[in-house]
Every structure is written in C-alpha cells, then in structure tokens.
Amino acid sequence: MSLDFKSQILRGIPASLPEKREYVYSANHAPKRKDILSLDEKRLAIRNALRYFPEAWHQELAQEFATELQAHGRIYMYRFKPEYDMYARPIGEYPALSLQAAGIMLMIQNNLDPAVAQHPEELITYGGNGAVFQNWAQYLLTMRYLAMMSEEQTLHVYSGHPMGLFPSSKEAPRVVVTNGMMIPNYSRPDDWEKYNALGVTQYGQMTAGSYMYIGPQGIVHGTAITVMNAFRKVLQRNENPAGKLFLTAGLGGMSGAQPKAGNIAGCITICAEVNPAAAKKRHEQGWVDELLDDMEELVSRTKKAIKEKETVSLAFIGNVVTVWEKFDEADIFIHLGSDQTSLHNPWAGGYYPVDYSFEEANDLMSESPDLFKEKVQESLRRHAQAINNHTAKGTYFFDYGNAFLLEASRAGADIMAENTIDFKYPSYVQDILGPMCFDYGFGPFRWVCTSGNPEDLRKTDTIALKVMEQIKAEAPEEIQQQMQDNIKWITEAENNRLVVGSQARILYADAEGRAKIAEAFNKAIRSGKIQGPIVLGRDHHDVSGTDSPFRETSNIYDGSKFTADMAIHNVIGDSFRGATWVSIHNGGGVGWGEVVNGGFGMLLDGSEAASKRLKNMLFYDVNNGISRRSWARNEEALFAIKREMARTPALKVTLPNLVDDALLHGLFDEAVT
User: Fold this and answer.
1) Residues of the chain with CATH 3.40.1770.10
2) Does the annotation list 128 as a binding residue?
3) What single string gives the DSSP state of each residue in 455-500?
4) Residue 563 confidence (pLDDT) above 90
5) What pTM does this model have?
6) Where is the Urocanase C-terminal domain (predicted)?
7) Is 452 annotated as contributing to ligand binding?
8) pLDDT digit string (tens) for 596-617?
9) Is 325 annotated as a binding residue?
10) Which residues are within 8 A (CB) of 175 and not within 5 positions of it... i.e. 6 or more apart?
11) Mean pLDDT of the residues in the chain
12) So what's the pLDDT on residue 673?
C-alpha cells in the first residue's frame, strides 16, 4: 500500500529499501559528466553516497551507485526519487509545523517540477548544471526536516546536503543555504567536476540552489528591458523595433525567455538551439512562435518577417554559428546580436561545437573530452568571426553575461579591444542594465502566491500596478523611463502567459517599490483579499546580490569588481533583518569560480511581524548595492543614494570625493607608446 503525499514527506528516507526504478529514457537528462575521478576517488564517492543509508542496504546500493557513476559521471540515486508528482502544491497541502517552512517546501518542489526544471531526474533546474540537490536522498531528508521544523530552528544546507536542524530564534532564517563555497585555489572547472562527483559540493547556479526559480519568466522581464533599451540605442527616435532582427542562441531554462522577451519588445527574434527537446518544450509552452530546422527555410521566413515588419519569434533547431554565417552570406542585416548558451559550463553541455549533431556532440563530450574542448574552441573562434563580420556592417552585439566573450578570448578568438585588456563588445550590464537599472536600484523583484490560485496572482498584479502608478506620479525625471517600462510590463503580464509552474510574477522595482508593493500584499493577506501567504524573493542577478566582474558588476570601474564583499554582506545583512531563508553561492551564470552571488526568500503571512521584517530587509537588500556602486563613482548610483539618504535620515553612507582626471597625469614617469 502506497503512502499519501504527506506521509511520504514525513517518512524521509524509507524504512525499507524501495524497488529499483527503471531509467526514464524519455526524460530530458543531464549530459554525462566527465570521468575525472581516480579509482580511489571513485571508491570514496561510493562511500560518501552510502552514508545516507543503513548498512544492510550497502551491498546492493554500492553496485548500483557504481553503475550510475560510470554511466552518468554522478550518483543521483534514481531509486529514491519519490513516487508522487513533483510540482508546487497549495501551501496548506504540506505537512509542516512552520508556515515559513511550508513555503520553502513549495518553492523546492517548484524548482523540480518537470514543467520548470531542465533536467528534473538529475535535480537540475537550469543552466545545464544548476542543481537544487546533488541526489534524491538529500531531497528526502531536507523535506522531512522542513516538515519537522519549529519556528525556533534553522536548517543548514551545505551544497544540497541538509546538515541538520539547529536551535535558533523566531527572528532567524528558517534555512541557510550555501553552494559550491570552495577554498579559492580549488575553484577551477575541473574542481567542480571532481568534488561534485565525490558528492561533497554542487553548482547552485543562482535561483536553482536557492529555491527561487520561477521558470523563464524570471528572466523575461530583464531580457525585455535589455532588448527594448538596446533598440533604443541603435534606432532613430522615429523608428520602432517592428521588423528589426535580434539574433541569439539558447532555449534552456533561462535562455528560453529570449523569444518571449523579443515579442514583448516588438521585434523579430531568432533563437538557435541545438537540443531539439528544449526547442520543442519552449514551443509547446508558448514561449516561441515557430519552429524551423531547415536553414533555407529560416532565411526565407526571416526575409518575409522583415518585409512585413512582423513581431515574431523563430526557433531554429541547429547551431547558431551556422545562422550567423548564413545570414552574412545572404546579406540579412542583424540589428541586435547576443548569445545565451551556458558558456559558464563549456565542456559539459553548455555550448556545442558546430558541424556535429546534438547526439554526436554528447558522445564526443563523454568519450573524448579533450577533442570536445578543442572543437568547442574552434566553434567559438568561428562564432566570433561571424559576429565580427556583422558588426562591421553595423550590428550592435552585446555579451549577455553567459561568459561568451570570456570563453571566446580563452579560445583565441578575435574579440579583444585595441588595448588588449578589454573586450571589443560590452556586457549588457555595462551598456544597459547597470547604468539604466542597477545603479538606480531597479532589479528583479519577484513573488509567488502560495495558494496556487491564479486569481490571487491577478490581484497581486493589480496591487503592484496601482503602487507603481502612484510612485511614478512623484518620481524624478531620472527614473521615469524605468517606471513606465515596469508599468507596461505588469499591465501586459497576464496576457503574455508568463506563468510556468507556481503562480509567480517578476517586476523590476527599486527599494521604494519593493517595500510598498510587499506591504500592500501583506495587508491584502491580512484582510483576506488574497487567500494565502506570498513568498517574496528576487533573482541573484540584481543590484546587490552578486559580485560578478563579467556581468552584474561589470560596470564597476574602481578596480573592485573582482572583490566579493558586497554579496557576502548582502546575505549576512538579509539574514538578521528578517529573511525566511538566505543563500550564498560560488558560481552562477558566468561560471564556477567567476562569481559569488547571494539570494533570499521571505514569506508574508499578513502579520505585523512580517510588515516590520519586509521594510527592514528589503531596504537593506537594495541599498547595500547602491552604496557600493556609488562608492565606485557611478553617477546614477550617486544620485540614487543621495536621494535615499534625503528620504531616510537613519541612512548614512560614505560618499566619494571625485578627482579631476587632469590631476593624475604626469604624477609618474609614463612610458612613451
């Protein structure tokens, strides 16, 4: 007799060894990882995995886990995947002593929902390796701990492993998460391969390992803002994006947002994807309008869209390098170009070499990793050269923070500026999101209606719209465009069919907007207008959450962009100001060892305590980053933090004294060049 959902959660690791499960060949599985462990290390990996289970099971499981390690490069413990369907249930369906813990359980299940997750069988949400847990035993234990937790305990999670419940207080976070926090000298790509295979660390990406992923919607808004503002940079005032071309690549968990964002911006979007399953999934979900797999058909369809000034998104099943090259040959002008393949993970499925099928490339990756790397770098050189051909004709190309330029430079591609230090193309944060959004405090605020009721989400949209319109009426000229873009977004959100999985929404808002929207939500919960609690959160890709020299902090020019103080202060500061859970990760969208990023979640239950927490925490969560950006002498951030100090007397921030550039010349003997 099978147990019901609540009983299975409360059971955790089963009392008796469950039957071995059949491998689900139809699922979108993670690629086989590199065979990097020595014989002794493989034995250690088995020993590490078996410690989750009683000794009586070890003989049977040892062979099974060894087979998994050989076949997949990791031990996922498929046998222990729960029998129940994985999705975000209404919060009342979770067995929990703490409402905050139930909210976290809901968010974990949403991250692993097959409609949301990229490789759900392997507990990977997006980005090819962005994991919620390393294996199914960790999931079972974590859910059981959350069900048992009181309001005076905190669960500490080490890279997916639930270390345990510790006494704390009602004011403390209910969960503290770390992912991939390596000693710096052990933070190279092969270190991730090795220590993840050993079962001692994992790559949490950004919102995967911190339980805050809401499907591609999470990046649609930021991508829409980026594309709209990129067109504003290249078009004349009397032009609009209709019939103008945006070419990019990637239809996975995060990159799958690009076609929808292009539609919102009103342009033609062509997005190449080598994995047919990923492209078809996005088409079925309504995130891309049309699928094509023939190059000549793509050329013909693109020319028609340009001629008729369409707003349409086209997914090309194939390698984007061939699209760049073919469009050069066919003299198709590309207005905007970018790339959002998972180049933070170039040797394990994040980027595929041209002239190989998807299946051939996967075989090459696992059987001949050195040759695979060689072919990927050849493709990056071709990719960059094709982009250079188009930019010479006037295309505006920007790096979308996926480490494309970084990996292309490492491959020897022609993408360096004349000074041989900088890239010849900007990061989108340098040109767009940094000065236009992050420096002013605008970033990806998000919320989830835990009732699971779409009507609650509609009500939150209405509430957020009303708040934004009130703020805009008195906002200074410097942020009027940001306010208007966000009002347009929230007005059209439901019609754009953005929900995948949980009833969630994202909205770029500053500290004032976040706090006022959250307070209005809390009041609506208290009055019964909204039927259940709301979980607040954000992407780590935000004003304060992330130190990433090639993306989020790429527009920091005082030499501090390679430091990670801001992200660390962010997660510590949020933890004692009222967050329900906090997370800090090594790695993210630009790669292992290239970024440190922190996140949070906060449950609103309509209480006065929640009202106090949200004001305290959301204020710090944003203004910590504005302060750092203002100290770096960013003009927009200086405006924003001075405005905030004028409104908030208790805020005292150290401001920079600006230096005349002419003063610096002639101070040292400068070599003649």
Assistant:
1) 5-198, 440-647
2) yes
3) HHHHHHHHHHHHHHHHHHHH--GGGHHHHHHHHHHHHHTTTTT---
4) yes
5) 0.89
6) 438-642
7) no
8) 999 999 999 999 999 999 999 9
9) no
10) 101, 104, 146, 154, 155, 156, 157, 580, 581, 582
11) 94
12) 47
